[in-house]
Specification:
This protein is α+β, with helices and mostly antiparallel strands. The chain contains 23 helices and 32 strands. Strands 2-3-4-1-7-8 form a 6-stranded mixed β-sheet, with helices on one face. A 6-stranded antiparallel β-barrel has the order 9-10-15-14-11-16. A 4-stranded antiparallel β-sheet has the order 20-21-22-23. The longest helix is centred in the first third of the chain and has 30 residues. It starts with a strand and ends with a helix. It binds one DNA strand through strand 5, helix 3 and helix 5.
Length: 845
DNA sequence: GCAAGGTC
């Protein structure tokens, strides 16, 4: 029997589609990567009985990156990233082993049906899948077609079955347009990011960001926030005056002035004086108009994100996580969609009836059936977000329930009637001046029944009157008011702007917003308002000054337009790519040449690196004090040599007893993660310039292979780490009296010999004479920290003794361990110093 | 240490 492999974009979809196509009778097993499942059943395909294997990927299989030295942040001139730097596709998530998984499943298959999402990205993933599986599949028989593409727009029985009956083929042009987008984003984004980061980080000490990123989506997103900030800053409050009239007949009534306001006090006073000549207000007209508030369109992702942010106080990233969970648990339909129109075959009535227990859907049901939803936009992706089954608060959890509740109410609202109300307006004249008073009365609540927050507020009823009636004028006065500045952009408004300008997708909008927060460009204030930081403001103002294109929202849409031409087959992939890269390469060079313009703005907000920080340790070159800059990324700066030296992050740095590195005379600093944690000395020069061939950038003395320096791994290394493959436990001579050794690769810390007066590696140790735990008044002992019987109780981490070769030889854990530590030390690991390791091995075995 | 796009 021949086999048909079918691949969806995500595990949940593979399951749903398999269930539909097999009519619920498929068998399921886990794939080798643990993330994807394979659903198998038999059926017919191109006129034969076949075995179907339905599985999925997890989004993109591959992602694009630079290779070799171009991958490393500081290795090359960022300008080279525009053309010279070669790129490669590598597995998007190596942990998932997706290529291997697909190949194992594709082996021996005769046909493949691609069920990836029906958008450009999905089309691109089709070819990623094909690249992986085609070599493993059986050869086709003659000219027989073996590759098929299913096109579907919803996960309903009819849609999926229709798609299966009308299989097409994958669209190479659409896939290519995505390839082009990936390459453009990578080259442009990384070039600008690297240049900016390097330039400003080397100049300013208190930049509160370890990475100054740039991207065609994140930068315009930040631009929107700063634009609003600028409006607030340049806002000048203006005084204005309003004439207020209070009248009464049976009850008092406050009227609105027809001129609304004037900006001149004297003019306002003049109107007051004129109005005051009359004792009575005359009713000129009474109008009543029936008005309607429209029911909402069906819910798509961005609208859900907007409401979640503004009404539920939930950020977009968080909202999507919750929505994703509700979806995989079957409570709501797929939460990433642009569509606001229900498909023709959508079971509105059934969906509504599911909610009968929680909500009262009767109001939405008319005698002849359901109230028709408004006509929305069909983006051809997934149906609008709707509830899929009834749920209760207890099973969903707080935020899950709040989001589900909203989605459900929104759905019911879309199939409910509009809200109808009566607007009454009474026009008055008081002498020469016109005033009005208006009020709304509800006729029928319609959809606001389920969305009460949009309801017509109950107002005090207007007095019943008609044309020609008169009211007594109780008071006429001039009120002084001031115009108010706009407020900071709310997250919800930002989402609207991004959507309007095509910045990001429904899936990536939350990511971009998150990005500009994490990079410290904006902060989220109360009410989920986004306030740009100094850094964010300076960046955007700098782009405006040098090349506004870099921050304008049009940057993305212009590129997208070109990409669409590729997708439609109207433009050549290479030509579009080259052309666009050329433009941005020029923009990049212009930006680099003009960076002084942005720098002028930086100077105002940030302090030069030479003026920042406190003197800490001496430079090995000029022997003057270097300054320690604590702001992230913390570093040392020698103002005399004008050099900056990186340091290990996420810990405290202090001077290490004015000891010097024997290689370069830089004073050592001590990095500490916390009082009971790890600490090790670091040579600021060696840290960035590895002194030996077997060392890499970013290593402290605890990884240094110097043969004789008293701080090196060679002098202080004790034994192989008990947890990780490659680490060595290194004695920390600063840790007394709570002596410890710490792995130089992972987080393992071994406490030992507490209270010991002095501990030295392989030489001797002293206990304070009066409190020695050693027997017979002994105060000194030398031995192996792991297996010496005298030391046994003084070493805290039990793993340590159990994994020591002597104990393993005893058989207690033989064959049961994780297979680590069995390898003789020093062998096959060039990173470890041979002499020291050889000595240790000889000692242990 | 970089982009944006999928999804886990």
């Amino acid at each position: 029997m021949r086999t048909v492999l079918m691949v969806a974009e995500k595990p949940s979809l593979a399951q749903s589609i398999a269930k539909i196509l097999s009519k619920g009778s498929c068998s399921t097993r886990k794939g080798l990567n643990g993330a994807c499942s394979v659903h198998e059943y038999t059926g017919s395909f191109v006129g034969q009985n076949v075995r179907f294997k339905m599985t999925s990927v997890c989004g993109h299989v591959m992602s694009l990156d630079f290779i070799g030295k171009y991958f490393v942040f500081n290795k090359v001139d960022p300008a080279e990233l525009f053309s010279k730097a070669p790129t490669e596709k590598k597995e998007a998530n190596p942990k998932l082993n997706m290529v291997k998984f697909l190949q194992v499943e594709a082996k021996g298959c005769d046909y493949v049906v691609l069920w990836l999402d029906c958008d450009k990205e999905g089309e691109n993933i089709c070819f990623e899948v094909l690249d992986a599986i085609q070599p493993m599949m059986n050869k086709s028989y003659g000219n027989e077609r073996t590759i098929y593409r299913a096109k579907f727009s919803s996960i309903t029985d009819t849609d999926i079955c229709n798609a299966m009956n009308q299989l097409g083929e994958p669209n190479k042009n659409e896939a290519l347009s995505v390839d082009a987008r990936q390459e453009l984003d990578l080259r442009i984004g990384c070039a600008f990011t690297r240049f900016q980061t390097k330039y400003f980080q080397g100049k300013y000490g208190n930049l509160d960001s370890s990475l100054i990123s740039f991207g065609p989506c994140q930068t315009p997103t930040l631009g929107f926030c700063v634009e609003r900030h600028d409006k607030i800053q340049s806002f000048k409050a203006e005084a204005y005056w309003v004439v207020q009239a209070k009248v009464s007949k049976d009850s008092p009534l406050t009227l609105d002035w027809d001129r609304v306001r004037v900006f001149d006090r004297d003019v306002g006073q003049m109107f007051v004086n004129m109005a005051k000549t009359a004792k009575e207000a005359k009713v000129d007209s009474v109008t009543k108009k029936e008005k309607a508030k429209q029911r909402p369109l069906a819910l798509n992702t961005v609208e859900m994100l907007r409401v979640a942010s503004s009404a539920l106080g939930m950020g977009p990233q968080h909202t999507m996580q919750i929505a994703e969970r509700l979806y995989t648990q079957g409570y709501i339909s797929y939460p990433r969609t642009e569509t606001t129109h229900y498909p023709e075959n959508f079971d509105l009535k059934g969906t509504l009836k599911q909610q009968a227990n929680t909500f009262n859907p009767d109001k939405a049901l008319k005698k002849d059936g359901i109230n028709r939803p408004r006509k929305g936009a069909d983006a051809g992706d997934h149906p609008p977000i709707t509830p899929m089954r009834a749920a209760s608060e207890s099973e969903l959890g707080s935020d899950g329930w709040r989001l589900y509740d909203y989605i459900t109410r929104h759905f019911i609202a879309t199939v409910s009637p509009d809200c109808k109300y009566l607007q009454t307006t009474i026009s008055f004249s008081i002498a020469t001046e016109g005033f009005t008073c208006s009020g709304k009365t509800l006729i029928s609540a319609g959809y606001t029944e389920v969305m009460p927050w949009q309801g017509i507020p109950q107002e005090e009823a207007l007095p019943v009157c008609e044309r020609g009636d008169t009211f007594t004028v109780d008071e006429i006065k001039l009120l002084e008011k001031q115009t108010n500045p706009p407020d900071y952009l709310t997250e919800s408004e930002l989402i609207t702007l991004m959507e309007k300008h095509g910045i990001g997708t429904d899936a990536s909008i939350p990511v971009h917003i998150n990005n500009i927060c994490q990079r410290n460009y904006v902060t989220v204030e109360s009410g989920r308002k986004l306030k740009p930081t100094n850094l964010g403001i300076v960046l955007v103002h700098g782009y405006y000054k040098i090349d506004a294109d870099l921050v304008l929202p049009t940057i993305r849409s212009a590129v997208e337009k070109q990409l669409t031409l590729i997708a439609l087959g109207k433009a050549n992939f290479q030509q579009v790519l080259q052309h666009t890269l050329d433009i941005f390469k020029r923009k990049f060079h212009y930006f680099v040449d003009s960076i002084a313009g942005m720098d002028e703005l930086m100077e105002v907000s940030f302090s030069p690196i030479a003026d920042t920080g406190k003197p800490l340790s001496r430079c090995g070159k000029c022997h003057r004090f270097m300054k320690y800059i604590q702001a992230k990324p913390s570093r040392l700066h020698c103002s005399h040599c004008d050099e900056t030296y990186s340091l290990p992050q996420n810990g405290a740095i202090k001077l290490y007893k004015e000891l010097k590195c024997p290689l370069d005379e830089f004073e050592l600093v001590l990095w500490t993660s916390g009082s009971r944690g790890k600490s090790y000395p670091v040579c600021p020069y060696c840290f960035s310039n590895p002194p030996f061939r077997d060392m890499k950038k970013g290593m402290g003395c605890n990884e240094c292979t110097h043969p004789s320096c008293q701080h090196s791994l060679n002098s202080l290394g004790i034994g192989q780490c008990v947890e990780c493959e490659t680490g060595v436990l290194v004695f920390d001579p600063t840790s007394g009296p709570k002596w410890r050794m710490a792995c130089n690769k992972c987080n393992v810390v071994v406490h030992f010999f507490e209270q010991a007066h002095k501990v030295q590696v392989s030489q001797d140790m002293d206990f304070n004479k009066t409190r020695s735990p050693l027997t017979d008044g002994e105060t000194q002992h030398t031995g192996c920290a792991f297996c010496d019987p005298v030391f046994q109780d003084l070493v805290e981490l039990k793993y340590a003794t159990m994994r020591h070769p002597m104990h393993r030889a005893g058989g207690a854990r033989r064959g049961r361990g994780r297979g680590r530590g069995r390898r003789p030390m020093g062998k096959g690991n060039p990173k470890k110093p041979k002499d020291k390791m050889a000595a240790l091995a000889a000692y242990f075995v």
